[in-house]
Amino acid sequence: xxxxxxxxxxxxxxxxxxxxxxxxxxxxxxxxxxxxxxxxxxxxxxxxxxxxxxxxxxxxxxxxxxxxxxxxxxxxxxxxxxxxxxxxxxxxxxxxxxxxxxxxxxxxxxxxxxxxxxxxxxxxxxxxxxxxxxxxxxxxxxxxxxxxxxxxxxxxxxxxxxxxxxxxxxxxxxxxxxxxxxxxxxxxxxxxxxxxxxxxxxxxxxxxxxxxxxxxxxxxxxxxxxxxxxxxxxxxxxx
Length: 239
Fold this sequence. Notes:
Pfam families: CBM_14. It comes from Stegodyphus mimosarum (African social velvet spider). The structure is a single chain. By secondary structure, this protein is mostly beta strands. The chain has three domains: 27-88, Antimicrobial Protein, Tachycitin, Chain A (Beta Complex); 100-149, Chitin binding domain (Antimicrobial Protein, Tachycitin, Chain A, Beta Complex); 154-237, Antimicrobial Protein, Tachycitin, Chain A (Beta Complex). Helix content is 11%, strand content 30%. It contains four helices and 16 strands. It has helices spanning 2-9, 148-152, 161-167, 230-236, and strands at 15-17, 32-34, 41-46, 49-54, 60-61, 72-73, 100-103, 110-115, 118-123, 129-131, 136-138, 171-174, 177-186, 192-198, 204-206, 211-213. Strands 1-4-3-2 form a four-stranded antiparallel beta sheet, with no helix packed on it. Strands 7-8-9 form a three-stranded antiparallel beta sheet, covered by helices on one side. A three-stranded antiparallel beta sheet has the order 12-13-14. The longest helix has 8 residues, at 2-9.
């Protein structure tokens, strides 16, 4: 991804300043150490003196690298719990900081990637929502402040005991597309929330069996793949 490449080229853009610890002698030159308070700061041994360095706003010092490697990166896989302080943010529209990946303000399925304070919009795959804490697209019911029913425009009916016994998490057809269907999973609060799924290529959803099936077995879906050979599709995709 070009934007990620752009971030990578800027990982080494850091500023250095003298620190009160500058009189400490470094054992070797060009070694880097985590700052004791700030996750986006670090120490560098330079000319025998320990100096503070600062990552670009929104990036943090990666202390998992070897001491002779300087890398400032997005914070999602870096433990900042013991050095949680950060520099004051430099904010702009859609970008709380100069760099980072941030949830869209009104659409769970979109997110912003910010590079030098410039926002670039991206979409999650259909049916998924952007999880700002993991920087991944996730099931909407697992994303804070995302209403899966509103996002997917589907409200789960109350299943009968027989449906639960036969099918577990009930499944329902998606209007207008034979491959897609909803599954209503039971959440920790006792409610059922929808997730959007799709059958493997060559198959369609069969509401009678609540499973994916051959198109010829599902009324109204026999011609779903038109001139494509459904059996050949299943073979190509290993099904």
